[in-house]
Amino acid sequence: MDASRPWLERLPVELLHEISTYLEGPDLIALRQTSSQVSAGASMPFGDHFFGTITTDLYWDSLPRLLAATRFEGPRHRVRVLHITTWHDYVPYRSRHLHITTWHDGVPYRSRRHNQLQYWRRNGDGAIIFESPMAQAVLAGIRDGFPGCRSLVVDDANGAGPDRPILARRRMSGTDCLALAVALAGTLPVTSLTVTLASYGLEEYRINPSVLGRADWNALETLRFEVRRIISTAGPQAGEKEVTSSSRPAWVVDHRGIGAIQTFIHSLLSSAPNLQTVQIGGDRSMDYCIPLLSEQGRTIRHLTLGGYTFHSSYVPMRVLNDWMASYSGGDKLESLEFVNINATRVGDFRPWKPFLSRIHATFPNLQRFKLMNCRVHPLRHGRMFLCALLPSLTARLGPGLDSPYSHEYSDARWVTISDEHGGTFRILSEPRRAYDRNGERKGPRLHDLGVEYKLGPSGTAEGMKCALSDIAESIGNRDDLFHDDECTGRPVPGADQEA
User: Fold this and answer.
1) Domain shared by 168 and 254, yes or no
2) How far apart are alpha carbons 65 and 56 in whole angstroms?
3) 142, 149 Cβ separation under 8 angstroms
4) Mean pLDDT, rounded, of the chain
5) Domain identity same for 42 and 131
6) Segment (H or E) for 225
7) Closest CA to 459 of 416, 420, 413, 488
8) Per-residue pLDDT for 17 more than 90?
9) Which superkingdom is the protein from (predicted)?
10) How many domains does the chain have?
């Protein structure tokens, strides 16, 4: 080996490849610019990093570019995730993903035939006709052009819905993006599906039942489904409640009846026998989706109810109770999370307490449990606090380890305590201003808003049972604005406790 060459160039190609797998985008670029030999050794991790996900809005002008990408070996064999989104208003060049959209440098791309563009063919309900030659060509191009694609991501970041009818004619809505993903599921072995429809919601009637019938979800292992609301018909029906918000047309239906047909989510859950990880969240759709999970109870290993896209997911407490009572195969569940759940109660001011006390009997083999930022509705009964948990654990197990929360804009803290059963508590504490009964503002106090318990390698089922009991006993509710006498929290280290 030539000793005059720089040491980096003298490394074996296999070692360069291994080193490159630990680097992020800017560092990968710098490494490749070192020399041609090093660039060759780092080429595969470079391609995996930047071409692992391809993002497109599938607007008419974007389609030729998407299909043209299949002619290049870099994207063709390295794309693992296809991200289908609504029309982006910018291209984030610093992203690690390859974006193929209709916008360039913040300016919409306009062809000379802008007023004569041909759009996706649709039926009377506005559903895309996937039997059309153009739709068939797109599906075949994606299937054959990205043979390694196994994950589909759908969102409506800049969604166009019926509240913006002019744009809806010329853009792919969130429902359109999902319909295309469902059509692709009939040609690709999809193992992961992520659906985030936060701008408007899911219009069930705009997904053709024949497309749903051809979808193959046998390979699906991971489902993340966060949808603001589910709309089953194109107009209000008898007994249905109309949404009259100024941001939406008056005819949009917010289904709250049990009889609402959940075409997409029901067909998916009933035909996905190998689901392992499921997250169900949304503003007003969870009460329809949660009962369907009981049918998949035999295979699900990791379940999250709620999520991080929406501030709160409203769920009637009776729905949670009925779901747990009818859940089958609970002995297979290993991880259970409740995140940003706003549970509507009837009579009981503390509905979470009896609910949590029954979890271990239904899910006896849980290895991890998380309860984070949950509330009781109506809101005047306040945010659910767990402030009694830390003192009781400290008295029994000794002081915990205090560490900052990972989010750079948060003043929250993690307190970690290991117990005698081989498990670990992680308690999330957040400083909040307190008020006395006269409405006078006092200094900030630390309140515990969430807890995670995880069994270690030597953990036992008895540890999870005791942890769930400790969490249930610690639950307290506090008025969001006044009367902090029930949950006083604890002082913030170094903070002025006066007004």
Assistant:
1) yes
2) 9
3) yes
4) 75
5) no
6) strand 222-227
7) 420
8) no
9) Eukaryota
10) 3
